[in-house]
Backbone:
């Protein structure tokens, strides 16, 4: 057990918190353990283009689905704001144009779904898995022909191949997406009595992937949450994963993390 074991046990958990540890235990340490008296990370956090761009699109979809802005409003705001978002980061011209074109194309064809009953948009749920307090925010929860559907908006590229199946190279990432949704399923079942489908809206690829709710996957996820938290509680080192892309593009701590320069020296990269 580490000096942080009791603190970790009392944490309010989320999929993001557990997946941060899986991506890099050291990032978890800096984010949730090496903090000030108010719980804020001591190391300065940095934003990244992918998170900001994805968060912006989530915001547009939230306002649209809540009838707070029209599809035309969403597109107009995106066209006005995109340069400010992209100019904040050093990114390639290809990346800049890709995300601009994807966002413009998606919002240009945005239509309000008429055959569904929206139950929640960005609904926040506090619940328990085993003895742990968990929080989850569901992008979209709706009913269609009596079926309850949990939908998650994804800014990442689709994990699907041309035939609509999950690509083998994306299977690990998809497994993470599934676990997140099955975590969210628990409070939905408690509140609405069931979940029939889980769904991902890959807005950058303009594709939707839906699968039937799977009881076995659900139970496996509940066990995964318990096993993961137990592993974090037992960790005494919180070692970095030496992942170049994560360190350079995703991690909130960048150059201030001791692992940042180490990955630059790895011959594999």
Residues:
């Amino acid at each position: 057990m580490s000096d942080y074991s009791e603190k970790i046990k009392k944490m309010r958990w989320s999929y993001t918190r557990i997946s941060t540890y899986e991506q890099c235990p050291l990032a978890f340490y800096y984010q949730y353990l090496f903090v000030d008296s108010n719980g804020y990370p001591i190391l300065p956090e940095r934003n990244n283009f992918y998170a900001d761009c994805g968060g912006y699109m989530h915001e547009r979809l939230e306002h649209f689905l809540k009838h707070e802005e029209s599809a035309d409003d969403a597109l107009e705001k995106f066209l006005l704001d995109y340069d400010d978002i992209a100019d904040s980061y050093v990114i390639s011209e290809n990346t800049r144009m890709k995300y601009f074109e994807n966002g413009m194309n998606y919002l240009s064809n945005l239509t309000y779904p008429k055959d569904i009953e929206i139950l929640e948009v960005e609904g926040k749920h506090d619940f328990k898995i085993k003895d742990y307090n968990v929080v989850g925010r569901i992008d979209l929860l709706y009913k269609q022909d009596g079926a309850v559907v949990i939908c998650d908006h994804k800014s990442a590229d689709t994990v699907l191949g041309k035939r609509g199946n999950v690509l083998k190279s994306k299977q690990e990432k998809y497994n993470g997406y599934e676990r997140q949704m099955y975590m969210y399923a628990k409070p939905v079942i408690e509140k609405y009595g069931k979940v029939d489908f889980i769904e991902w809206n890959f807005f950058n690829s303009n594709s939707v992937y839906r699968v039937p709710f799977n009881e076995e996957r659900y139970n496996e996820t509940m066990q995964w949450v318990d096993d993961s938290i137990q592993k974090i509680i037992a960790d005494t080192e919180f070692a970095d994963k030496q992942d170049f892309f994560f360190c350079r593009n995703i991690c909130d701590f960048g150059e201030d993390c001791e692992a940042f320069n180490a990955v630059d020296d790895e011959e594999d990269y």
The longest strand covers residues 117-129.
